[in-house]
Design brief:
Strand 7 and strand 8 form a beta hairpin. It contains two helices and eight strands, in the order E-E-E-H-E-E-H-E-E-E. By secondary structure, the protein is an alpha+beta fold. The protein has a six-stranded mixed β-sheet with strand order 3-4-5-6-7-8, covered by helices on one side. The chain has one domain: Diaminopimelate Epimerase, Chain A, domain 1 (Roll), CATH 3.10.310. InterPro entries: DUF6497 (IPR045467). This is Acetolactate synthase.
Length: 161
Amino acid sequence: MIRPTRNRTAQAGCLAHATSEGGARPRRVRGRALFVLLWGVAGPVQAQPGNLLPVPSGQPVELNEVLLDNNPGELWLRFRFIAPKIGDEVGRIGYDVAARDMLHLCQTLVIPYVAHHDLHPARVVISLSDRTVRFGDVAPDATQFFEAYRLEQSTCIWEEL
């Protein structure tokens, strides 16, 4: 979970207990630094607690955490977002619409983040959840959507999971 510190920046503070040693681990996300980076590179996108990220559907989306995961045998970055309006019920944001939002988040948030931190992930996984769910926990009542991408020349290429 992203928690504010006394300097009003954000830090990832969740542990991924469900993975084996060397698996997913939280990446310290400093919201202010990410905000400055994204303002100059991709327009005014803020990734700070309590700040909603703009997506094509207009739904409220907030960055929850960023995890670095070597458990698949290569580096995977996991960007986990809270999107409380997703779901299959009438009036909710369905997967088809949310998939466009996830691609948008990959292009506008992940690409600059990866470049700024000089990371070279084999895959990027973006997940949307209608509520906070700790990584690796089973939450049958939660709605969660996932997409995986590989990054090529500053572009997110969809990968079937």
